[in-house]
Amino acid sequence: MGILQVLVLGLIEGVTEFLPISSTGHLMLAAKLLNLSQSEFAKSFEISIQLGAIISVVVLYWRKLVNGIDIWKKLFIAFIPAGVIGVFLYKLVKEHLLGNNGIVLWSLFLGGIFLIVFELLHREKPTDIDELSAISYPQALCIGFFQCFAMIPGVSRSAATIIGGLLAGLKRKTIVEFSFLLAIPTVLAAVSLDLYKSAHVFTRGDFLSLGLGFVVSFLVAAVTIKFLLAFIKRHSFISFGVYRIFIALVFWLIIR
Prior knowledge:
single chain, 12 helices, 77% helix
């Protein structure tokens, strides 16, 4: 994998990780355009590069993480479903779902329609939770189960958790921030599991590529997080649904 390809993929990861448009799906489609074969390393790269974006969350939210033992408990509860199911479905996801552009495009397309319809029907209530500290353990667990849908490439972990949180009675800003934080244990576990199973086949150059990808995704993700928090103050997620449908249709024409 060349330096330019690593830079492009790192940029895409940083932009898409926290937006409800699927970072994994975009990385797979970008790999197609860059003529990258879906080798064992390429699949691991698409998983592991997310760690760079996650570090940006740690840097931006370190105060809440250091002083928020209660938040960590709720994050752990929310992580359990994906943590357990992910161990059992790891082989299925990596060998049969990752690299399947058809699944990605259908997930992007149908997910876009669902996101638009959901936003048109959903209305926030004055009683909805507006503080991370007020999230209950049942609400955290509900969000965790929704996160499991993101094991399908193209669904988007961010979109799944946001919809789950809105249905559970959280306000947009609250669930978006909780989704940021939930990415820490979720992605860290996914990356650790993948590196444990695959790192032995990596070359020194592969590890250098991962390192460069981490740095780029970290820097870009920090900007994206601030953008999304400002965006949701005045807008719904409908525009992201429209984008998902558009990008799916474009790639259907490109790769058919």
